[in-house]
Design brief:
Elements: H1 3-33, H2 39-54, H3 61-74, E1 79-84, E2 89-92, H4 102-110, H5 114-117, E3 121-130, E4 133-142, H6 161-199, H7 218-274, H8 280-312, E5 320-323, H9 324-338, E6 345-349, E7 356-359, H10 361-379, E8 384-391, E9 395-402, H11 409-412, H12 434-444, E10 448-454, E11 458-466
Parallel strand pairs: 6-8
Antiparallel strand pairs: 1-2, 1-4, 3-4, 5-7, 8-9, 9-11, 10-11
Helix pairs in contact: 1-6, 7-8, 9-10, 10-12
The structure holds adenosine-5'-diphosphate.
């Protein structure tokens, strides 16, 4: 059942229940809380007394006295008075025995039932005919002896109920109608939200449609939360898709990247095997090419391994106190050999005193090698490679610099993303994960990785490691 139908049902049932409840409770409470005589009870009471007097064979004063006193005993607040047709009291339970003129009687009766409402006396005059004579019985009681709150006694016929019920229905229906109006508005907004959630298409490239609901209530807040959530999911979905596309592209290029050096290596190896080289110099060159290609393929395979490892787990580090200056010296020597014969100046700057730090040496070495490999690979044109170690009270900085073509500003903010490559992943020798690994290693040491690049002036990567215990 939809909410609207439920609400209508609720409205009808609750309106009917309210009316019944009102009727029953007003009668019931009237009976319990309203002590006294009801106006409609007085006539039957008068008639029952008149009937019991009428049943007597003789209408003597004693008979009247015993019946009327008996009735007065039963109803002490009521005065019972029996009079003849001239208005002369024959018996009066108050003992006053007045003589009523026609005017007195008319005055007694004239204010009925307003007298009752105005808190005067209530008088009921009942005529009795007996043996050709006419008598009257006056039943008189103070209005305070009547029920104080009794609406339904005023209803003469059921038709008059309508006059009572119509305003009642009207007043009852106002809160219901207001409730209905508010509910249908809320229902409309919920339906809009429902439709928006239903139509949310994360895969489409078009932007997510915003839900317009500026109100400050809970539904407005929900709509705003939905908008920001949808935006977030949509952009995250886009990022995941982009990431997946890059990954697919790189893996598909990988077979090509592996085959190219393999062809070169096969050519060189064949030349060496057949002895078709000109001199020792060519033999040396061919062997060097094979070595370079082997290193390159080795590196590619390492990176592939790294990709799958990064998918599986976060970096775990094992910290120990190490001489960072020593580590950098060792790596610098390696690169002197690698750069042998290349026209690249290698500049190493370190503090005079050795720098000791709590680090995972193998991870820091890996990070440094990644940065140096990049500087050699992409910054060779600058003919300069710098390694710098600085230390202050708070941190130790490992800096790798080159003066090559650098990284264009548009690419700089993406450069630490996995699989991101400036050349779009086709040319060059890598999977685009080297810098993301360096960043992960820096973060694992609670440090940072920063980059500044001015083409052919300086491209600088700086790992900053805090001196205090990093984890
Ligand atoms: P890979 O070297 O495997 O492509 P990296 O994450 O190490 O992956 O580097 C990402 C990209 O950043 C490289 O493709 C390269 O375009 C650019 N890059 C990194 N270091 C340098 C540098 N020193 N000079 C110029 N470009 C660089």
């Amino acid at each position: 059942m939809i909410l609207k139908t439920k609400l209508w049902l609720l409205l009808v049932v609750s309106a009917a229940l309210s009316m019944v409840l009102f009727g029953c409770s007003s009668v019931w409470i009237g009976k319990i809380a309203n002590k006294g005589y009801a106006l409609l009870e007085l006539n039957p009471l008068a008639h029952s007394i008149v009937d019991s007097i009428d049943e007597q064979p003789e209408l003597g004063k004693d008979t009247l006295k015993s019946i009327l006193d008996g009735a007065h005993e039963e109803h002490p607040s009521i005065r019972f008075l029996w009079m003849d047709s001239n208005g002369q009291a024959i018996y009066d339970t108050t003992g006053l025995n007045p003589n009523f003129t026609f005017r007195d009687l008319a005055l007694l009766m004239q204010n009925m039932p307003e007298g009752y409402l105005k808190n005067d006396e209530v008088n009921i005059l009942t005529p009795v005919s007996r043996e050709g004579e006419t008598y009257f019985m006056l039943l008189s009681l103070p209005a305070s002896a009547m029920k104080q709150g009794e609406m339904y006694f005023l209803i003469r016929s059921h038709k008059s109920l309508l006059t009572l019920v119509a305003p009642l229905i009207l007043s009852f229906s106002i809160p219901f109608l207001l409730g209905l109006w508010i509910f249908s508005r809320i229902n409309k907004r919920i339906r809009k939200l429902n439709n928006a959630v239903n139509q949310l298409n994360l895969q489409s490239n078009s932007p997510v449609a915003e839900l317009a609901d500026s109100s400050k209530d809970e539904l407005g807040q929900l709509a705003r939360h939905y908008n920001s959530m949808a935006q977030r999911i949509h952009s995250q979905f886009g990022e995941i898709q982009q990431f997946e596309n890059k990954r697919k592209l790189l893996l598909s290029n990988l077979s090509h990247d592996l085959r190219t050096p393999l062809t070169t290596m096969l050519g060189c190896a064949e030349l060496i095997r057949t002895g078709n080289y000109k001199d020792q110099q060519e033999l040396h060159t061919r062997a060097k090419i094979i070595l370079q290609r082997c290193r390159y393929m080795d590196k590619l395979l390492d990176q592939m391994l790294e990709v799958s490892r990064q998918d599986e787990e976060d970096i775990t580090i094992h910290l120990q106190n190490h001489n960072l200056s020593e580590i950098i010296r060792k790596i610098a020597v390696e690169y002197i050999m690698i750069l042998d014969g290349e026209q690249v100046e290698l500049d190493v700057e370190m503090p005079d005193e050795d720098v000791q730090l709590l680090i995972d040496a193998s991870l820091i070495e890996r990070a440094l090698r990644n940065l140096l490999d990049n500087a050699v690979r992409y910054g060779k044109d600058g003919h300069y490679l710098g390694i710098e170690l600085t230390a202050d009270d708070q941190a130790v900085n490992i800096i790798v610099k080159d003066k090559g073509k650098g990284i264009p500003p548009a690419h700089q903010k993406h450069i630490f993303e996995r699989f991101y490559r400036v050349d779009g992943g086709r040319k060059g020798e890598g999977l685009g994960i080297g810098l993301s690994i360096v960043k992960d290693i820096s973060l694992a040491h609670r440090g940072t990785l920063e980059m500044n690049s001015r083409p052919f002036v300086e491209t600088r990567f700086q790992i900053r490691l805090p001196v205090s215990t990093p984890v």
